Amino acid sequence: MKGGLRKSMTWLHTWSSLIVIWILFAIFLTGTTSFFRAEITHWMTPEHHVSTPVDQPLLAAVEYLESVAPYGETWQISLPDSRSPVLGLNWQAEGEERQRRRGARAVLDPATGDPIDEARDTAGGNFLFRFHYELYGVPRGVGQWIVGIASMLMFIAIISGIIMHRKIFADFFSFRPGKKTASWVDAHVVGSVLALPFHIMITFTGLFLLAGTLLFWQGGNERGGNQGQGQQQGQQQGQQEGQRQGRQQAGSEGHSHDNAQLNPQRGAQEGRAQNTDQSKTESRAENRADNDNPRTGRRQQQAISASVQREPVDVDLDALFEQAEALFNQSVADITVTKPMTDGVEIRFRGSEKSHLSHFRGGIPEVSFNADGDVIKESYPSGAEGAVATTYGVLRSLHEGHFADIITRWLLFFAGVLGTVMVGSGALLWSQKRQRQLAGKRGYELVSALNLAGIAGMFVALGAYFWANRIIPVDIEDRGDLEIATFFSAWLLCLFYAVFFRNKHGWLIQLAVAGVLFVLLPVLDFLTSPVGLTDAIAGGDWVRLSFDLIALLTALGLWTAVYYLIKKARTTNNKPVKSRAPQKPMKDATV
After folding, report:
1. What is the DSSP letter of 530?
2. Which of 61, 234, 253, 475 is deepest in the core (most CB within 10 A)?
3. Could you give the dihedral angle defined by the CA atoms of residues 225, 226, 230 and 232, in that order, rounded to the nearest 10 degrees?
4. What is the pTM (predicted TM-score) of this model?
5. Three-state SS at 108
6. 3-state SS assignment for residue 40
């Protein structure tokens, strides 16, 4: 690293990014998709596509809960929103012990009140989200440690890249297509500069959130500190059930990209986002065994409850709902009813937006009413307490987009796309600049193979993951794990091809395969979803339709790359080979 400052920064920029650039590409790509992980989960649960939004879904929720758990201990109602159109319910029957993550739950169509009982088990967007910050198939601590190191090197690469570039903003307005190295430089600069504030913010906040994993003397946990025996027990449990629990409980611990995350005990929200609770499947099986018609079973239960001499206490829930929204000056996200249908009922409403950016968890206004409609509890958090908690909360909210409305979320998504372009073009730029000098050498060929598998192969794996969601039979056991296995199998196959056959149109074949997978995703969606295209448009299911649109735009980008590769191959084949001038015969040498 000899020479002037810029030369030293160039060396630092190149090697700090290259050694982890393929991990960074996967982190950026999966992290970008995680801004819409709830929407991805909705697309990957086609049974939920029958849901139709209505102005007031409370009536359907209350009628269902009164039939399955009259005079229960608690009811929880998770209302539909712009990110998930279904109505999530969770309840605790009378006399039943409270369970933190297991319990009776259901997902309803808010328009009809009919339960959606046969929703498939899917890893959904939660897998991509967890892969983003802790990878997969390795212990959670190790995965976060690797991502933390990659984040640190990424931050070094960004700062050194700014210092080394003399004309960074002037080059931003330059575009030189068909110029090989210069074209990749332009793509790299555009992806870097156009969203530079986002790249700095997202890298620094990500490094901050995982900084504790790099402090080995602090016990290596995410937030620092030594947890002693509790940490060891957590690691042992993680070895036994970490992979499956990580897929099922992505919204209850660690990072979260959902505005609607409330607390780990919110069973209705977890049931709506994950659809993987085994108790739900077991309860459905029991209902079928007792009675083929689940509605008849509920009527029988209702009749038994009605035989008990009780007079239900009527509460005007609609009026309280409107009053809560007026107090919050925002929409209500969920409702918890304690001791329903009794004199001791307590109805708690929670808002949908955090009151302050410093709240990474909680910080949502709440108000509770009694049976007479009087306010008995109110909570309007003003901000986190203390400078440390405020700093942590603000940085975490910035990284995870907790504050983002739909427009801001799309802006964050496209900034993430530019970050993915920045990382991918940087990897290809390294190979392009050194092709003549290093082609055929072991190190260069290794980088070339990893570039192919890490970039094109990642798109193939992602496309295969979405296809597996619709192709794997719905009733097969552990089908969510099979979706994840399909992702890694496709990625491993691409790596194998890249190592041994990359010189046989490797980029062309893998990009074309990815392009086919993504361009046909909307077709697969409409063939395997119970709701057709026209009905989806009429029903306003823009979450699902937006996914299909992004799939088509991704396919357009992939097929554009394929077109240029074919054009380049034809140009190379048609280029005339320059013949060397005939050499003059050597004169006889005489001694």
Report:
1. S
2. 61
3. 120
4. 0.77
5. strand
6. helix
